[in-house]
Specification:
single chain; alpha+beta; MetI-like fold; four-stranded mixed β-sheet; 49% helix; 10% strand; cell membrane; ABC transporter permease subunit
């Protein structure tokens, strides 16, 4: 009776085998939570979608890359061999190498610079908002924006508008590439050394008339005013004008009321082969030399007046197209890098920074020896992520680069699309897709490993 109330008794260590067999096993493990079958049931839909959208396309692309354009003849690795033997494809690989080296480095450095600077300014929130704003714009829209920015005409393209404004600030000369002096024995000037000069020496008090012809209507600046009719008192002066009246009613060699002066031209007074003074024509084409010594001078228009005016850089040409597109890429992604690095800066213990400053370290030493090492994991993640993005870049190159220079700006992703859907060579297109996957895969694995390491 006592034994039943107290429950089954565990036999001592030396009990019989039958007694030990009847004793409950304390070492038996019990599983917590639902059965693994339920977990597999929930994972199955995601696994099916992953197989349909990722695994199957990769496997089929590998299979398709081993066949010709029509998909009927097995060619083995010939498509992959063509990647490294075709000159156009090699240019594409070279461009991708430039992208991988330059773009991620610029994005990471600018993101670090912006993140550090925003910690020291009051309006850091507004600054971060402005820098991050391009992330709200799609790459295709960014391509359209920069296609307009890089327009050759300064009246349309912002980049050349800025360059020409800066250039004209320090060089006020106006170019008239088609202008030439009026010919004839009665003309007081003649072409000389690529420019224009007076036939006879002139002296102060007598105006110098320099009639010019051959100027196209679009070349004449809007600031041109009616040419000055009378001489300026004192000094050596004159007028340079467009000697043409619509309808042919004007008098050759004389200033007519409807004729315009040529502003912005550089005029030189030359004595004994040396430039004694320089002047610039006004809106009405008039010029004047003050303070000249008495004597005779040759009035000359140097060759610089007859060169085309500075119109900026050809951003969409063969030489600059790749750097121009990389700049657009940096504009889009610099805000992303800044946000990630700013989060890393916020996690740095301030005690280490303050201790270094107390010990006498300069700000540069604190930044180089403490901030950068502590930020290295974040910087590496940003850098690797940008490498992956540069390897996959497509939209910006397709939109910004004109058709005439796309072969020089081509990248692997764009070449894959052009070959597969433009030339309808699915075999070569699949080979380029697998080649791009092989390039991206190591960096993706590196990122995944870093994420797992951070979780542990």
């Amino acid at each position: 009776m006592t034994e039943r109330l107290n429950g089954p008794q565990v036999p001592p260590e030396g009990g019989t085998a039958s007694q030990r067999a009847d004793t409950p096993q304390k070492s038996k493990k019990y599983r917590l939570g639902p059965s693994p079958i339920i977990a597999y049931f929930f994972v199955l839909p995601a696994a099916l979608l992953l197989g349909i959208w990722a695994v199957y396309p990769i496997l089929y692309s590998i299979f398709r890359s081993l066949f010709d354009a029509a998909g009927t003849t097995f060619v083995g690795v010939d498509n992959f061999t063509a990647i490294f033997t075709d000159r156009g494809t090699l240019v594409t690989v070279r461009n991708n190498l430039i992208w991988v080296v330059v773009a991620p480095l610029l994005v990471t450095v600018l993101g670090l610079l912006f993140a550090v600077l925003t910690e020291r300014i009051r309006w850091s929130t507004a600054f971060k908002l402005i820098v991050f704003m391009p992330m709200a714009v799609s790459l295709m829209a960014a391509g359209v924006i920069f296609r307009l920015v890089y327009e050759q005409d300064p009246d349309k393209g912002l980049a050349n508008a800025v360059l020409t404004t800066v250039h004209d600030t320090f060089s006020a000369s106006q170019g008239y590439p088609d202008a030439r002096p009026r010919e004839g024995d009665a003309s007081p000037v003649q072409a000389k050394d690529g420019g224009v000069a007076t036939k006879q020496p002139v002296q102060a008090g007598r105006p110098v008339l320099i009639p010019m012809v051959g100027i196209k209507a679009g070349t004449l600046p809007t600031s041109a005013a009616p040419a000055a009719a009378g001489p300026q008192p004192g000094g050596l002066s004159g007028v340079i004008w467009f000697d043409f009246t619509p309808g042919g009613q004007g008098t050759s060699g004389a200033v007519d009321p409807q004729e315009k002066g040529l502003p912005g031209m550089t005029v030189e007074a030359v004595s004994n082969g040396k430039v004694a003074a320089t002047a610039t024509t006004e809106a009405d084409g008039s010029f004047r030399f003050d303070g000249l010594a008495a004597g005779s001078y040759e009035v000359r228009l140097p060759q610089s007046n007859f060169t085309a005016p500075y119109r900026g850089l050809n951003w969409l040409g063969e030489a600059l197209i790749t750097p121009a597109i990389i700049f657009a890429f940096v504009w889009v992604w610099a805000g992303f890098a800044m946000v990630l690095i700013s989060a890393g800066l916020a996690a740095i213990p301030r005690d280490a920074l303050e201790a270094a400053r107390i010990d006498g370290a300069t700000e540069w030493q604190v930044f180089r020896r403490i901030t950068i090492p502590l930020l290295s994991p974040v910087l590496l993640v940003v850098f690797v992520t940008m490498i992956i993005n540069t390897l996959k870049v497509f939209d910006l190159v397709f939109i910004i680069a004109p058709a005439s220079v796309q072969p020089q700006a081509n990248v692997i992703a764009l070449e894959m699309w052009r070959v597969a859907f433009g030339a309808n060579n699915q075999g070569m297109g699949s080979a380029l897709a697998i080649f791009l996957l092989v390039l991206v895969l190591p960096f993706m694995i590196m990122n995944v490993r870093r994420f797992r390491r951070g979780e542990n």
